[in-house]
Each structure stands twice: as C-alpha cells, then as structure tokens.
Amino acid sequence: MSIFKPSMLTLAMVAAGVGSANLYAAENQNNDKEQEKEVEVIEVTGFRASLVKAINTKRFSPEVVESVSAEDIGKLPDSSIAESIARLPGLAAQRLDGRASRVTIRGFGEDHVGTTFNGREQVSITDNRGAELDLYPSEIMSAVTVYKTPSADLEASGLAGVIDLQTIKPLSMDERVIKVNAMYEQTGFEKLNPDADDNGFRGTLSYIDQFADNTLGVAVAFNTMSSPNQEKRWNSWGYPEFTGDDGNTYSILGGAKPFVRSSTLERDSVMAVIEYAPSENLRMVFDSLYVDFVDEKILRGIEVPFAWGQGSISADNAVVDPATGFVTSAITEGQRVVVRNDYEDRSAELTSFGFNLEYDLNDSWSLEFDASHSSVEREIWSMESYAGTGRGDARGVADNLGYAFNSGNTGATFSHELDYSDYNLIQLGGPLSWGWSSALNEKYGVVGTEYENQLQDGFLNTPEVDDELNALRLAATKVLENDYVTSVEFGLSYSEREKTKRSEGYFLTVSSFSLDNPGMMMVPEEYRLGTANLDFIGMGDMIAFNSRAMVEDGYYDLLAESLTDPSHATKSWTVKEQLTSAFVKANIDTEVAGMPLTGNAGLRYVKTEQESQGNAFNTQDGKVITSPTHIEHDYAHLLPSLNLSLSIDDDQSVRFGAAKTISRARMDEMNASVNATYNQQPDENGSNWVVNGGNPSLEPYQAINFDISYENYFSPEGYFAIALYHKDLKDWIFDGSYSIDMTGVADPSTGLVPANPDGTGNGKVNGGDGTVKGAEFSVTLPFNYFADALDGFGLIASHTVNSSDMVDQDGNDYEIPGLSKSIQNLTFYYENYGFQARASMRKRDDFKGDVYGRGFDSQQVDIQGETIWDAQIGYDFSESGLKSLEGMTVTFQVQNITEEPFISLSGDNALQVRDYQDYGRTFLLGVNYQF
Asked: Ranked by mean pLDDT, which of 50-54, 223-227, 584-588, 680-684 comes out on top?
C-alpha cells in the first residue's frame, strides 16, 4: 500500500489558494510514480473546480476547517458571504431584514465567533464584537475559511471558531485577468411604498496583473451595489394575561405595529492588493479594503392599541382558543390609532489595510512582520412620525377595530371603519398621550394644562458607533530535521482597540404647535406621496408622505430626550482594550504504526488590559445629572491547542482536536455607564453606592473543546465526513450583582466625591457552567463516481445536531442564543458543457436570536426554524464554440423560492406571534465577462 503524505510544496500551494483537481492529480502522480499506470488529470472548471479547491483546503489543513472559494461565492445562488458560508456543515445564518447577516458556528452566535480579514481581527458596525457579514462584498473576496478548531497562531478568538475572509494574491495567477460582472435585481413584491425601489443593480470590475518578471503583482476590484428588499411585517406589542370571571387565566393581544418596509442597500467597495517578491527569500503584500455602506428603509403602517388601549372590549365578541386560553378574535370600540410614516438610514464606512512581510533568512529560519489597521464609523438616523385624527387620547374621531388571528403564525387581520387614506382626516401630531417629559412640557409651557404629556409627535434616534483596531505582529519559524516535528513557530503580537458609542434621541413636535394653535397639522401638498396599501392586515390604504424631508425642512422642532431620560447615558460609553499575546506552535509530521500523523501543538498567552469610560448618572428635579466614570480591569489566559490528523491510507484520515478558547464579553455589557445612587446608609455589603448598568470587570466566556472526526476523500471531487464535538463551558455571563469601585466618581445629586467608594452593581456577572455537544455529517458526492454518464451531476449535503446543558449561577436552566438543535444544508448541482444549474436549501430548527428593539438595543427573542430554497441556472459561452462570446457567462437566480417568512414568538404559545416578516422572492439576472 502506498501511504499518501502531502509534500511541503502541496501544502504551500493549497495554503496559497492554488489547490485544484489538477494539483490533486499531480500530487498522486508524484507519489505513485513508480507505478506503471496512467494517472488521469481531471480537468474541471467553474463551480466544480471551486468545490475541489474547498475540499483540498479542508483535507490538507492541520485544523478542522470548512471553506468556500471565489467560485462558490460568485456562483452559488447567494447575495452575500453570510449566505454562502451558512451552507457549510455546522453553520447557520440569521436573517436581518431579509438578508442573511449573522452567522452561527455549531450553535454559537456572532458574539462567540471571531472574524478576520486576511488573518487580522476586524472591527464591527454593531454595538458589540460580532461582525455583520453583509457589510463585506462577496464579489471581491477570493475565499473564506472557517476554523472550527484553533491553532496557537490565530489572532482572533471565539468559543466556536474564527471566520477568515481572504483576498486574491495576484502572484498566484499566471496571467492578466480582467473581469466585469453586472447583475439586475428585482423583488417579488411590487413597490410596497410609493417612493421605494423594487429593482436594483450590482456591478463589479476587477483587474489582476503581474509585472517585472512576475515579481510584482497588482489586484484591484471595485464593486457597487443598489439592492432592494421589501417586507410585509406583523409586529405585536405583547400579549398580557388576565383572570376571567371563571377564575381561569387568559391572554389577549396588547397591541400591534404592522407595517410595510421598503429598503435599499447601497454599498460601494474598493479592494486593492500589491504583492512584491523581488527574490525567492522575500515576499511583501499590502492589502486594503474600503466599504461605503448605506441601508435606507422606508416603513409605513398603523400602530393599533388593543388591550393596552383606551377602547372597550366586549367578552361577547371574543373567541378563545380552548387549549391555551388565548383570545384569537375580539373587537375594541372607541380606540384611536397611530398612523406611522417612518424612515431609517443606517450608514457605515469601513477602512481596513495591512502590510505583511515574510523573509527567509536561510533554509532553516524565516521571519514575518505584520501591521494592520481596521476602523469603522457607523451612524443611524431613525425617525418615527405620528399622525391621527386628533391630539392626545380624547380628541378626534375614534374607531371600532376588530382582530382575528390567522393560521400558520402569520399574525392577525384587522377590521376598521375609518378611512386612513384621507389626508383631511389623518393629520400630523400625537394621537395618543406619549412623550411624558418634563423638559418637553416646560419648553411649550403646557405644565398644568390639558396638553401636558401630549406633545410627542414623533421621535428621532441617532446612535453612533466608532470602532478602531490597530495591530502589530512579529513571528519566526525554525525548520527542524527530525522524525517528529518539522518546524516550530513562535511570535508576539500587540493590538489596541477602542470602541465608542454615543446615544441620543429627540422628541419631535410639529413646529406649528402652541397653546394658541394646539391642534394637528395637515400634511402639506408638496410632501404627499399618495397612499401605501395595508391590505395584508386588513387596514386598506393609508396616507404616505415624505416625513424625512419635513424634518429637514423645519416642520418639526427637536428636543433631546437625554435631558430627562437616563437611558442615553447608560448607552453612551467608550471601551478600550490592549492585548499582548505570545505564542509557540510545533508543526508535527511523523508516523504512528506506519501511518502518517500530522498536525500541530501550541500554546498562546493573552493578556488583556481594559479601560471603560462612561457616566454615572441620576435624576434631580426630573433632569438627568451625570458624572464621568473611568474603570480599569485586566486578566490573562493560557490557551493550549492540539490538532492531529492520522492518515489511515491515501483517502482516509482521523482527526483529533483539543483546545481552550475564550470569547470576551459584549462591549455594551462591560461599559462603565451606570445609573448611580449614593445612599447615606450602607447595604449588607458595606456599600453606599448602588448602581445599575454595565460591568467593566466581566471576565471572558471560557470553553474546553474536544473534536474527533473521520474523513474519507473517495474522489478528487468528493468526500464524506463524520465529526463529533464537545465543549465544556464556564464563566458564562448572566444577570446578577457584583462589587464595583467608584473611586473618584462624584455623587450626581451633589457633585461631590463621597468618602466610601464601594458600590454594589446590578447587571451582568460571570457565573454558571454547562456543556454543548453535537455531531456533523457531511458529504460532497459527484455522481460520476457511479457512472461516467452522470458526469457533472452531484450533491452537497450536511446534517448537524446540537444539544446543550447549561445552568445560570442560581442553577436555573438556560438556552444558549443561536443554538438550533438541528441544521441541514443541501445543494443539487449540474455543471458540464457550459451549462450550470443549482438548487440549494438551508434549514435550521428554532433558536433564540437577537433582534433590534427600541433605541436599537439588542433584544433576545424566540425565533422559529426556517427552510430556505434558492436556485440558479446559467451558461458559460466559453464552451459554446462561439469565438465572439468566449469569456461570457449568463446566470439567472431566484432567492427564497418558497417565500419562507421570518417568525419570532413572544413566549411558549405558538399563537402569540411577535414578528411575522414576509420578504417574498428575489430575482437576479447576471452577466459576467472575462477579457
């Protein structure tokens, strides 16, 4: 038997992204050269070639990894990197406004997944660490590798793994490449808002070339995208419980906020790579990425109070589900509603660049230097405008409204009597008594009048985030000559990260308001856009107008909510982190019982020094008083890792991995902004301070991980694998109390620094432990394995099962966010003679996930499982024989074929739907041309 043992050249070529079916065949030819038989060189292109490349990456990696290549991302029926990697074994994606954005690995969400760009940790546009991958254009990436087991030299950390986004290396190409990609996009819904787009465009221009005898390589890519997305959404306020006359407990709809949303995601991106290798010993690479990202949303709907409203509900008209006691149908009489014309603009600018130098001193020693910068600035401008029949709870015409819940968790349909498309009836102003702000009342002089607490005619949220990360790394490799370890790598790295969030909100009041003119304002003619249709909830047409333009043109007056609401002080903070790391890793290459054993063993030391700056605040005479805070904390961890791969024969291997990993706490939970009160009498802990808010002393989540897998590479285009994993978790973060040092912090109520700095904090604490275990089954099966006549047909499938056993610090059961008990992915494909066809499915069970709540705070909800089907057909004219069309490929894609909705629940009752989001289908027609 000939033992297959990949050479150093093979591993280097695969690491550089050269792996292909030809590489695999050539390697086997070298190893079996003594055999007098012809070795078949397998020539595949396009999607099939990318599959071979991904298989080789998985096969030859010392770690347990999954991978997709540029062909995968560019040609799978996916619009983002998140959707492409969500098809990998053990991975799943959560949709955000209809787009796959947040990725989980083996049941752990984005807070426990590291993200790197060319091996360097990246900043994020969220309030925390988790990256939203729809920010990164898939069209200009070369590959994505997902590390499920770590090695000591990985710069990012995460309990579950690391996602590495990679750009092209121009010297890995052997010729000039110029590509143009253009794609037209159409939503399945016609325009849901009169001022929205239902079609868009994506375009990419890329240029790769080599100069100076292939010692200088340049790659440049520009991508622009204007991608529409539409949604019909049911959203409930909640479902209050009550006790009936019969003594039984019932629940009913508290209120609802259904709407139609039209979004356009506009993104311009520029990527550049310069690679210089003046000699065999020296290689330098500079890469950069700039992304300008704007997500514009138009939302129109009618907010309908029900049990939490002013109307009267008769039990005679109510219909109750006998199994749950839930009122599935009812009527409220004399209820006023809020007609909403809302607008949101979420913009971000990402800048990332890095420089890497590798130098071989001699045959035994090599050095590496790496420097990088990553920064993002994110701004949100989110406006709510209110309209109705009269100001406050008791003015204007009330309506008689009914609701009936639909089957299939789709929410409810309403009945009504008023015409909400009548501009004479529906006017600008707060139709309910919202805006309980003493500053707002004082500004307009309505204290003690009938208009007190009735002046909120809209609201404006304007949170901002700045995130910056700078890093340096020095490393060396020593090649050894023995039968056990081929080389040893060691190095140091240092990084500084600073993330700042500024939160503010504004009450909007129509500028025409005064005590002499306290009524509503009619929408001016020049801002009217007609109507938006709400037939999907039974409310007919409603007025539609340009609310943003009215704010910009001065039709609303603004007053900062932070004057009287302390929540903005809680959500404004700065967190700084300085990480100093050292690592050593031994690369193993030996034999056990005549079988090759490869892998690595390493140790990483990480010291974290953290500073948190924020506000200690309280209210005095209805106004918010703040005092600055500055709290420091540090900790260190030793993180061992072991990866082993035993080659049973040419095709089969067994892997084992063991490692300790950490995930640092969410930044919004470790900030130093607290609601602070200094009591004259100390509590049972001897603390005079009592605070509520962030906890800067949070330690990281920790896990001890074990992996074992069997892999069988039965074909250059196929493999199957079985993997088992187990994670022991500790220091999980839950709600609780903790000690806090308030040295130097002034009492907000007096402005003086008190004598006793000891405080008791209420917020997030480390505590509790548990386990997560699971299994992955994956296969890539080319049908030519069975018969040559089936060449080109194949399937890719995976099935993942997860289970968890987690308790909090008080011994209560806890469900890990992002964990689905089972995940399935399936792709059928055909590619041959230029024809391309693919149908893909991704499915996951129910899970807990984060969505945006009021003020863009993260809110955890129960999300129902979903099954999403996509498909693509295409033709590559390079195989048509038509010289004039050589280099052209056309594709047609349909996304979300079955119109799978996004559904979240408010509790255990499946009838109590929180969100039902219907996105419809999306159609894409594309043309690619390579010069």
From this structure: 584-588
Instruction: List, in order, residues 6 or more apart from 929 with CB less than 8 Å away.
Output: 179, 180, 181, 887, 888, 889
Amino acid at position 493, single letter: S
Calpha distance 729→766 (Å, rounded): 12
From residue 275, alpha-carbon distances to 169, 211, 270, 357, 742 in Å are 7, 10, 17, 10, 51
Query: Exposure string (b/e) for 7-34, b if CB count within 10 Å is 16 or more?
Result: eeebbebbeebbbbbbbbbbbbeebeee
The residue type at 276: Y
pLDDT class for 378, splitting at 50, 70, 90? very high
Cα distance from N-terminal residue to C-terminal residue, the chain: 46
Side chain identity, residue 413: T
Res. 33 pLDDT band, cuts 50 70 90 = very low
Whole-angstrom Cα distance, residue 293 to residue 124?
13
Q: What token pair was written down for 506?
A: 């504004």
Q: Does residue 75 sit in helix, strand or coil?
A: helix
Beta bridge pairs of residue 354: 287, 372
Instruction: Name the DSSP letter for residue 517.
Output: B
Which ranges constitute the DSSP H helices of 675-761?
Answer: none
Of the candidates 312, 301, 313, 382, the residue with the CA atom closest to the CA atom of residue 337: 301
Determine phi and psi for 770, rounding to 5 degrees.
170, -170
Rg (CA), the chain: 30
Indicate the pairing of strand 689-693 with strand 758-766: parallel
* Confidence (pTM): 0.89
User: Residue 645: which pLDDT band, with cuts at 50, 70 and 90?
Assistant: very high
| Contact assessment for residue 515 and residue 451, using Cβ atoms and an 8 Å cutoff | yes
**In the numeric block, which tokens belong to residue 248?**
């039984």
* Amino acid, single-letter form, for residue 93: A
Q: How many CB atoms lie within 10 A of CB 553?
A: 13
One-letter identity of residue 534: L
Place of tokens 């007096």: 750
Instruction: Kindly report the average pLDDT of the chain as a whole number.
Output: 90
CA–CA separation, 433 and 441 (whole Å): 12
Distance of CA 664 to the CA centre of its chain: 17
